[in-house]
Amino acid sequence: MKRLNLLISWLAPIALAASVAAQSVPLDFSTVVTPADITLPNAYAMGNVILSYDNFGSGLGAAQVNQAGINGTTYGSLIFNFSGAMTTLNFDFILENVAGPIEDAVALTFKLAGNDSADAEVSTANYFPYDPAHPENGGRTTGSVHFTGSAFDQAILFFSPDAGSFTLGAASFSDGSQPGLTNVVLAPVNPFVAISNTAALHAVGQYDDGAILELPAANVVWTSSDPAVASIDAVGVVTGLTLGTTTVSADAAGVIGSTTLTVLASGPEIVTQPQSATVGVNGSVTLSVTATGDSLSYQWQFDNQNLAGATNASLTLNNLTAEQAGAYVVVVSSPVGSVRSAEAIVSLLGLKMYAGLTLAGEAGETYKIEFQTSLTNETWITLTNLNLPTSPYLFIDLSSPGASQRFYRATLVP
């Protein structure tokens, strides 16, 4: 009998990444209750940032912060003062009524302790020069800033009078620090593998910023507490060697996760198939299977559907009715695989005769089974759509008793 070995599946979906990114802190504008005027000398504190706007005493520019972000008129400078040195700043902006080239409208400078640290080029999209004769064709620009570079504690975004008015939405910044690894979890939990078979384990890191990421193989040292039971290579692939259990561990810079691996003899094999039977109406029949393997479980099926509670090596059917006549199989499973038995056909002796069709098609494909009472008819009546479990397969038309004649066809469902 051919043994079917299954891959061990993960118990839960896990986000994967090659590396851990620096922590990025967003500006949470949702905390603003009412619009706040940030024109100097006023300022608005938001976490580790103090926002202010300098109109150079011109009276031309002003700005407010609200739950949608920051908006204002130009000319002037929007200033970010950070509580510590940062290395990254990201935000998007919109300019309305732009009167000239974007390079003349916006500039951005970063400073550290009052000294110029770096200039960032502002990248923009959808820019159209303002056309006074056709304002509907221009004057609006969407742009973005994604700066990562030398340390800065102040960022100054300058808007010239050509910029018209501005809106700044979602923004975030980072000091370049990496989140800390707090825990290592191995997946799957308490896995199984058969002798001479392999299975892949995964080391998943949990970080203090809430991230859950698979650890790169180069960052993990794998060990097996009993290499005579199972060995493990540098990328977490275990090989079952002898019956028993071993503790598999993954060490990521001193943070260690472990799980218990069980090595079984083999996947299940069926020694004795369930046998077909013919019984009278209201009679009883017992179907049984004999299988070898470790930690076996059973699931009986009727017409390719699981029978509730039918999870033993034998299945007893009492007080049989016509609706219970048909094909029965049992799926025998273990932690390292499963195998499906041959069909056992249960037939009834009684006053009724049932039509049976033998289908020889592609197992696993779906076929529409139809009938008509005369070959001169043009209309076919659908009995069912059948997912062919095996080939050949005996289909019994339970609605056929009492019909004088029926003609059948089976067609592949696209």
Task: Tell me about this structure.
The structure is a single chain. With 414 residues, this protein is mainly β. The protein folds into 4 domains: 25-174, Jelly Rolls; 181-264, Sandwich (Immunoglobulin-like); 267-351, Immunoglobulin-like; 353-414. It has one helix at residues 102-105, and strands at 25-26, 36-37, 44-46, 49-54, 62-66, 69-73, 76-96, 106-112, 115-119, 123-125, 140-159, 165-174, 181-187, 192-194, 198-200, 202-207, 212-214, 221-224, 230-232, 237-240, 244-252, 255-264, 269-272, 277-280, 285-288, 290-292, 297-302, 305-306, 314-317, 326-334, 337-340, 344-349, 355-359, 366-372, 381-387, 393-397, 407-412. Strands 1, 2, 3, 4, 5, 6, 7, 8, 9, 10, 11 and 12 form a 12-stranded antiparallel β-sheet that branches. Strands 24, 27, 28, 30, 31 and 32 form a 6-stranded mixed β-sheet that branches. The chain has a 4-stranded mixed β-sheet with strand order 14-22-21-18, with no helix packed on it. The longest helix has 4 residues, at 102-105. The chain is elongated.
